[in-house]
């Protein structure tokens, strides 16, 4: 995608430039999406007792919460190409807030299942976050920008695990019953989503020079108009996209799985209180504060040394480490050791996710939204597959996580299927050098 004036620096304390406003609003929007998407997960022990859910039914609700996201991410990617990230994100946040608040009306398994299915659409916000930063940042920092915004967004999985049990406990202290407490607690993330959606519309724009619609009308965009952009099927014919989708299934799929079962795993396996189990599970999500960013930083540094091949090799290494960490965590019987291995798993799996989207922007610039949508959907496919495994009454969570770790370890080599031509390597190497040179020269690309 030929968009001018991409930023080649990330100035975290700045909100004056459109690039940094997109950076901060996109990660915060996805953070809020996670708040709504997984707000109910740390309260599942209470919901289980209130609605009388079985382990299989809980598994089905987990599958519903991530399965629908596969389809919505594919659609959202196309909408980003057509409408731009600003309109797409605003619409997703406002519409997604409805089922988040409405889940409190569920009084049966079927109603609860449908609510979690509808809420799952919010997870598509990830695609918009990655798309928006990819349009705003130059090759020398795009991996870091993508990884950081996604990581700080995924951080919502950790804060949710911590905040929702505390919010629930606060309602209990006010005399609210458990049956009503979890329902009232879910109003909070819904309201925050509405506020964030309105702010996204007010303070962001699609590209450094303005919204896509304005740039197209002014003939300033320098690329084919939306009507002639490559279609979904044309972009999807590239097998490298599906290889990256599998890699993301092995990384983000594991992260979603831990977000969904982490609290109830520690609650049941180590016989902890709901608040303690949620706090420990939340530590996994809190690793996103730096872990996914680290994956993106190493990807950018690898590109400096070895070009696009360096990005791919780093992804393979990170995925392999993630598989080893998951196998080790699944076998931990001593609580302090389990917590330590959970942190290692969080580091490796989240670095893998960051490394994946350090490669995505270089596959098809004209169809970037479609590429991000397909790869992003892969993460949810991985989570769905893991949920089917873990819902089996004959397989405990511990055994299921062990099997999942072996699968990640065996399939990590899928990353090496992503290859680039000599022409692609040369073109991106030149773009990288130009971006780095602009930083040294202090030209208009850098953020002030």
UniProtKB/TrEMBL annotation:
Q: Does the keyword Membrane apply?
A: yes
Fetch the Pfam families from UniProt: MFS_1
Q: Does the keyword Cytoplasm apply?
A: no
**Compartment list:** Membrane
Q: Which UniProt keywords apply?
A: Membrane, Nitrate assimilation, Transmembrane, Transmembrane helix
- Which terms does the UniProt entry file under GO BP? nitrate assimilation
Membrane-crossing ranges are 21-46, 58-76, 88-106, 112-131, 152-174, 180-201, 241-266, 272-291, 312-332, 338-363, 370-390, 396-418
| Domain Major facilitator superfamily (MFS) profile: start-end pairs | 22-423
Q: Cite the GO molecular-function annotations of the record.
A: nitrate transmembrane transporter activity
Q: Name one GO cellular component term.
A: membrane
InterPro entries in UniProt: MFS, MFS_dom, MFS_trans_sf, NO3_transporter
| Signal sequence region | none
Membrane-topology descriptor: Multi-pass membrane protein
Instruction: Give the coiled coil ranges.
Output: none
Similarity comment: family membership: Belongs to the major facilitator superfamily. Nitrate/nitrite porter (TC 2.A.1.8) family.
Q: Give the protein name, as stated in the record.
A: NNP family nitrate/nitrite transporter-like MFS transporter
**What organism does this protein naturally occur in?**
Halomonas organivorans
């Amino acid at each position: 995608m030929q968009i001018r004036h991409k930023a080649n620096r990330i100035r975290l304390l700045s909100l004056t430039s459109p690039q940094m406003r997109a950076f901060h609003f996109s990660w915060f929007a996805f953070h809020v999406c996670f708040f709504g998407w997984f707000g109910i997960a740390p309260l599942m022990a209470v919901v289980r007792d209130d609605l009388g859910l079985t382990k299989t039914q809980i598994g089905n609700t987990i599958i519903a919460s991530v399965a629908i996201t596969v389809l919505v991410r594919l659609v959202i990617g196309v909408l980003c190409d057509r409408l731009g990230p600003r309109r797409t994100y605003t619409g997703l946040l406002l519409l997604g807030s409805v089922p988040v608040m409405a889940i409190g009306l569920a009084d049966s398994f079927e109603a609860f299942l449908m609510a979690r299915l509808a809420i799952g659409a919010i997870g598509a916000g990830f695609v918009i976050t990655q798309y928006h930063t990819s349009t705003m940042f130059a090759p020398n920092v795009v991996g870091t920008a993508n990884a950081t915004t996604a990581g700080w967004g995924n951080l919502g999985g950790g804060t949710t695990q911590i905040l929702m049990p505390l919010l629930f406990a606060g309602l209990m202290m006010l005399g609210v019953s458990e049956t009503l407490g979890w329902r009232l607690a879910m109003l909070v993330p819904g309201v925050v989503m509405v506020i964030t959606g309105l702010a996204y519309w007010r303070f962001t724009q699609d590209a450094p020079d303005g919204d896509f619609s304005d740039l197209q009308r002014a003939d300033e965009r320098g690329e084919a108009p939306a009507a002639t952009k490559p279609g979904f099927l044309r972009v999807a014919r590239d097998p490298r996209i599906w290889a990256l989708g599998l890699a993301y299934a092995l990384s983000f799929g594991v992260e979603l799985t831990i977000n969904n079962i982490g609290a109830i795993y520690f609650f049941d396996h180590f016989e902890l209180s709901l608040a303690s189990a949620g706090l420990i599970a939340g530590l996994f999500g809190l690793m996103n504060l730096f872990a996914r960013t680290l994956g993106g930083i190493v990807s950018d540094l690898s590109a400096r040394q070895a070009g696009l091949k360096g990005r791919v090799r780093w992804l393979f290494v990170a995925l392999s480490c993630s598989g080893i960490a998951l196998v080790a965590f699944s076998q931990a019987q001593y609580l302090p050791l389990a917590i330590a291995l959970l942190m290692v798993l969080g580091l490796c799996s989240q670095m893998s996710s960051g490394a994946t989207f350090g490669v995505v922007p270089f596959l098809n610039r004209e169809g970037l939204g479609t590429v991000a949508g397909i790869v992003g959907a892969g993460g949810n496919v991985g989570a769905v597959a893991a949920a089917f495994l873990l819902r089996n009454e004959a397989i405990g969570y511990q055994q299921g996580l062990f099997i999942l770790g072996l699968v990640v370890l065996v399939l990590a080599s899928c990353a090496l299927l992503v290859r680039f031509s000599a022409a692609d390597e040369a073109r991106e190497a030149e773009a990288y050098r130009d971006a780095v040179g602009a930083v040294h020269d202090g030209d208009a690309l850098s953020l002030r």
